[in-house]
């Protein structure tokens, strides 16, 4: 933007120099009837005062004012002695002073308002040059229509927000809100594109119109310069041709500036879209990575649960084998007890037979043996009872443990499913 502003400032300074290049040396003998010098000076003074008060005037207004002054000076043409007329010298000094003030104002205003440096898209009003050619009026263009404001999107909260951060909003409501927002965004984007296309078409039409008027003005100035006699009119025609060429150059510069601004806007929009796409891709990659990590953690937990379940199944099988061994041991103990009972009965029968048959020492010895056998039998019976109780308690514990392990294995299988 800096180099465009400098180029426009240079163009304005060149235009000021062309405007300040007043023709001199032309003398006339019989001027036509003109208004008085005091009236002309009063008009010029009022115009200059209004221009200075207005501050920074546009390029076309300055050109129109300078052209009108030149036309008035050309039509005035008083009788001079020894070269230039006195009014021409005064006008030249006054124009130089005004040109310097305008250049200073332009340099001060460049930093404040960069948009005022651009030439307005309307050619200056061409003053009446000859009775055969009517004046070309400044084209009247309608102001561009004001762009409608973007629609306001108001999202009303659905549900009360609790203090712990949870919102009482269902998933369907959120999806509906997101869908509505996307539709509104699509409509806004379509409206913006339509408005930008309409503005671009209007700008192109105005540029074509300005280009046509500038060419027409340059051609008219060139024809006037070719057909004008030497002297003030020829120089004025050449100055007008230079003004038209400078206007055309300014129009080209403004067009280039507009193209550069549009290119910069497009590049910025593209960069923002690329940044958004990159950020969205990063978010998706992070989300996918997080989901992959969660899936790995779930798979690891599932493998660990499966290992635990297999270990529990193995423990249950081992407990069943132990219970089976204890059952076999119990059966063997029961068989031993039955055998001992049989022996006891046999010994008892023999003792009774011996007691009934013989009343001798042998009988006494047999009794002693019977008593010992009874004691042994009682001891064995008590041991067998204790062993049986111990085995039964172990069997109950093993059954309870098996039931607990079976319930845990069933719960783990349901969790794995």
TrEMBL record:
Keywords: Coiled coil. GO terms for cellular component: endoplasmic reticulum; Golgi apparatus. The keyword Nucleotide-binding does not apply. Pfam families: TMF_DNA_bd. It comes from the Eukaryota. Residues 337-415 form a coiled coil. The keyword Protein transport does not apply. Residues 132-152 have a biased composition (Pro residues). Residues 87-115, 270-313 have a biased composition (Basic and acidic residues). InterPro entries: Growth_transcription_reg, TMF_DNA-bd. Residues 20-165, 267-313 are annotated as: Disordered. This is Uncharacterized protein.
């Amino acid at each position: 933007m800096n180099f465009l502003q400098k180029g426009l400032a240079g163009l304005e300074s060149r235009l000021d120099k062309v405007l300040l290049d007043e023709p001199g040396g032309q003398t006339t003998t019989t001027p036509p009837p003109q208004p008085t010098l005091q009236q002309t000076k009063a008009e010029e003074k009022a115009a200059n005062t209004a221009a200075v008060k207005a501050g920074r005037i546009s390029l076309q207004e300055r050109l129109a004012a300078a052209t009108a002054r030149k036309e008035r000076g050309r039509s005035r043409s008083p009788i001079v002695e020894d070269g230039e007329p006195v009014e021409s010298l005064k006008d030249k000094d006054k124009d130089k002073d005004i040109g310097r003030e305008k250049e200073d104002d332009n340099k001060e205003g460049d930093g404040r308002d960069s948009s005022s440096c651009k030439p307005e898209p309307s050619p200056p009003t061409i003053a009446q040059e000859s009775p055969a050619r009517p004046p070309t009026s400044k084209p009247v263009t309608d102001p561009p229509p004001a762009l409608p404001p973007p629609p306001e999107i108001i999202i009303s909260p659905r549900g009360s927000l609790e203090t712990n951060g949870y919102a009482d909003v269902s998933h369907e409501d959120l999806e509906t809100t997101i869908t509505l927002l996307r539709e509104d965004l699509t409509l806004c984007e379509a409206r913006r594109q339509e408005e930008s296309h309409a503005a671009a078409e209007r700008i192109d039409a105005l540029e074509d119109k300005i280009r046509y008027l500038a060419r027409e003005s340059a051609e008219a100035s060139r024809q006037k310069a070719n057909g004008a006699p030497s002297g003030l009119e020829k120089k004025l025609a050449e100055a007008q041709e230079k003004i038209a060429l400078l206007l055309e150059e300014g129009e080209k510069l403004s067009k280039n500036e507009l193209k550069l601004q549009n290119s910069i806007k497009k590049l910025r929009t593209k960069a923002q879209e690329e940044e958004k796409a990159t950020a969205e891709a990063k978010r998706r990659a992070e989300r996918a990575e997080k989901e992959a990590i969660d899936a790995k953690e779930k798979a690891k937990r599932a493998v660990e649960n499966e290992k635990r379940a297999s270990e529990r199944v193995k423990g249950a099988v081992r407990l069943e084998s132990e219970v089976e061994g204890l059952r076999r041991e119990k059966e063997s103990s029961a068989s031993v007890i039955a055998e001992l009972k049989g022996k006891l009965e046999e010994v008892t029968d023999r003792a009774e037979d011996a007691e009934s048959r013989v009343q001798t020492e042998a009988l006494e010895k047999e009794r002693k043996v019977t008593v010992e056998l009874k004691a042994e039998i009682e001891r064995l019976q008590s041991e067998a009872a204790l062993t049986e109780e111990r085995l039964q308690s172990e069997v109950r514990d093993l059954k309870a443990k098996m039931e607990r392990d079976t319930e845990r294995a069933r719960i783990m299988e349901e969790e794995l499913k």
